[in-house]
Design brief:
The chain has about 350 residues and is mostly helical. The chain has two domains: about 1-85; about 120-300, Orthogonal Bundle (MetI-like fold). It has helices at about 1-30, 40-50, 50-90, 95, 110-120, 120-155, 160-170, 180-185, 195-200, 210-215, 225-235, 240-245, 250-260, 265-280, 285-290, 295-300, 305-315, 320-355. Helix 7 packs across helix 11. The longest helix has about 40 residues, at about 50-90. About 20% of the residues are buried.
């Protein structure tokens, strides 16, 4: 038995010595420039680095795998609800209560889309949402860009205080001032002049005027965010461009419009997309000011109740199942967000350029 161990030890020593001799030969060849390091195999280079290359390779692979798992998990969390709604929107009622049907409909149908389109008055509400969202988004972006440029370039009394007020409009939820806004526009008056002349205040609720006034004076939905974004962008623009325009005789407004705005298209595109999307999906302010306006957001919020009334009126069904009502609401949600997805597909280049190119400078 001792002879076997001795033979094995001798063989191991010879192998170790041969490895050392090979390593010495390779090092001499590299020193004499007979071979290049890139000509060596990975095993030989790893042996010369005493295992460092293998450890580095394992670390890189582990980082790639961890990154893939993280992004896959985040993507799944975002896409899974949307994919689930898409699946439910094409299911018949009996598929919703069939335990063997999970994601793929057994009875494919488009009836859900037909019913939702009828209950939401989809064509009419789509036109109303497009008009209100586009008009208010353009108005908000225009005034917020001017205000952001003013904060970035000019000095005026209490500048930091006013910008602090802008930050407050981002931090404070709009629900906290909803009662004040409701009373203000329900009994609208300008310094008491309207009541002095007519004897009573004016009720602006039920019209678009409250939205227009708030958007025009940078108090619309999320306007503080747009002011902050445009301010950060213009703070990073070199002043040499404006100074050259001033030397050529251009005024402040002309310099802003003809010199700075053309290069600010990415940030303006981002602000417009944010404004359009938030306005499109907003049901809180829409109900508070516009009342029964034909908008997709307000129509979607009452879809479940209208569907129950529809089933009772058309089919005599009292108390529709929760699953079927959820499928109808999921279908309505998809029909609301599809125009937003189409809009993003057309504007994604400017949106990504803005997010990649605009840094935050305090």
């Amino acid at each position: 038995m001792s002879n076997v161990f001795a033979a094995a030890a001798e063989k191991w020593n010879k192998s170790r010595q041969a490895s050392k001799d090979h390593k010495a030969q390779v090092e001499n060849a590299l020193k004499n420039k007979e071979i290049r390091l890139v000509d060596l195999s990975f095993i030989e280079r790893n042996r010369m680095s005493q295992g460092y290359l293998l450890a580095l390779k394992i670390k890189k692979v582990a980082i790639i795998v961890a990154r893939f798992v993280l992004f896959f998990g985040l993507s799944f969390l975002i896409l899974q609800p949307i994919l689930s709604k898409i699946s439910m929107s094409f299911m018949a009622e009996k598929d919703l209560y069939d335990s063997t049907v999970i994601n793929i409909p057994a009875h494919f149908t488009l009836d859900n889309y037909r019913v939702v389109s009828e209950l939401m008055a989809y064509g009419k509400c789509l036109g109303g949402s497009l008009f209100y969202s586009a008009f208010l988004a353009v108005l908000q972006v225009a005034v917020c860009t001017l205000v952001g440029y003013g904060f970035a370039r000019f000095e005026f009394p209490f500048k930091k205080f006013w910008f602090f007020c802008v930050i407050l409009t981002i931090i404070i939820p709009p629900q906290t001032i909803s009662s004040a806004l409701y009373l203000h526009f329900n009994y609208f008056d300008i310094l008491g002049l309207i009541k002095l002349i007519t004897g009573h205040t004016v009720n602006l609720r039920g019209s678009a005027l409250p939205y227009i006034l708030m958007s025009g004076f940078c108090m619309g939905l999320k306007n503080g965010v747009y002011i902050f974004m445009t301010r950060q962008y213009f703070r990073n623009v070199p002043r040499a461009m404006e100074e050259a325009a001033y030397v050529d005789g251009s005024g402040t407004l002309r310099t802003f419009v003809q010199v700075l705005l053309p290069d600010a298209k990415p940030i303006i595109t981002s602000c417009f997309l944010f404004a359009f999307v938030w306005q499109w999906t907003d049901a809180y302010y829409s109900k508070l000011f516009l009342g029964n306006a034909d908008l997709l957001s307000t129509s979607l919020s009452g879809l479940g109740d209208r569907f129950n009334q529809y089933m009772q009126r058309e089919h005599g069904v009292i108390g529709v199942g929760t699953g079927y009502t959820s499928a109808i609401i999921s279908t309505g949600t998809l029909m609301v967000i599809v125009p937003l997805i189409i809009l993003y597909l057309f504007e994604q280049r400017g949106f990504t350029e803005s997010l990649a190119g605009t840094s935050v400078k305090m």
